[in-house]
Amino acid sequence: MGVHPATGRKPTRVTTPLQYSPPWSRQLAERRQGRRAQPAVIRLAHWINIPLLVIMAGSGLQIFAAYPALGPRGGLYSWYPFQNDSPPSWLRFGGWLAGARHWHFAIAWFLIFNGVIYLIYMMTSGEWRRRVFIPTRDTSNAIAMFGYYLRIRKTPPPEDFYNGLQRIAYTSAIVFGMVVVLSGLAIYKPVQLHWITAAFGGYDIARVVHLSCLVLLATFTAMHLVLVALHPRTIITMVTGGQRG
Amino acid sequence: MGRWNESVDRLLFSETRLAPEPPASELTPEADFPSYFISDSMPFAPDNWALKVGGLVARPAVFTLDQIKRMPMYSGRVRHHCVEGWSAVAEWQGVPLRDLAQLVGASQAVQYVEFRSFDNGYYSTWDIESSLHPQTILAYGMNGKPLYPDHGAPLRLYSPVKLGYKCVKYLTEVNFLPTRAGGYWEDQGYDWYGGV
Lengths: 245, 196
What we know:
With 245 residues, chain A is mostly helical. Helix content of chain A is 61%, strand content 0%. Chain A has one domain (35-69, 88-240): Transmembrane di-heme cytochromes, Chain C (Fumarate Reductase Cytochrome B subunit, Up-down Bundle), CATH 1.20.950. Chain B has a single domain, classed as Alpha-Beta Complex (Sulfite Oxidase, Chain A, domain 2). The longest helix of chain B is centred in the N-terminal third of the chain and has 11 residues, at 2-12. Chain B starts with a helix and ends in a 19-residue tail after the last strand.
């Protein structure tokens, strides 16, 4: 679609909220009467995550720099192309290995606490129903939305609070968060929690998983920031909570 | 937060929980197992080397290497975890520290064990629980051969329940103490408990 000849502006896309009316959606709408679009617990958890994740990532990379290779001694993993390449200093936090470890193992508690509170709220409030990706329910919407972003579809599919792609994104972030914590425990206490380490296939594999989760979470964050920049009103909603339901 | 984490570490620790034994196929080739020391050059034991065991013990003693080798031997293949993040597998042979503690009559009041070395003052102090763990040994053998100088000959502390920097090489003294002392890396800011 082109620009308006007089104003030079693109036409505004208007989506009607709550075009869904399956039973779960109506039940949830009743339950969340008076609740803001983004409830306070979710908003707080979201913003608190930012400094926590930045410190965890930076201190984690400082720790990684002490042995920036993947695989045990004498058995480095041949598939990894960056063996012994240290992460750049501007990405690292904590000064040195001991400092980084102190930050990492201190802030980890707050990150886990934040995550647990968020998950408990999501489950007990019913908010998960309209946020989490449920494949049988949301796959066709996700595909249609993707088609719309690629400009194959001319119009977006009917939207609920979150579209199928958002549901995939935010559900994945939760999964990456859980796996990054579990793999972290596996490499933090490979003897006292050896059953967790074994579940990952051993210490060095758990270490790969831990680093991979950082990469996945960073990718998620980059995509999230791009999409938020394209829809800046969502920032306001994440601060004020938006409209009451 | 450090004190909180140490409380959690102590809570997690179990005397009966053994470090798993990796298969022999995962044994790290000798040339690939790093060997660190802090002296300017590789430390070699003096000819009259002996191990002094003292502190709060009923029978303080000095042991030669032969005497230590005649004590009951424990051999175990375990994964080593360095604070730097790397792991390696080796088999260690030596006398369990808990047997030595019994031999010298360590007091019930002992809470910490201090390990000293001839590597330019490198030392560490452990909690008594980890020291008495069944897999904690004073090792004189590595992979079935006598310990080499690069791995702390003639005797080193080894346990799979601690990070490598706590496992003092080039041992000279073992002291059973009522109060806590530090360690070479611990004094510089590394975690004192250092457990895995």
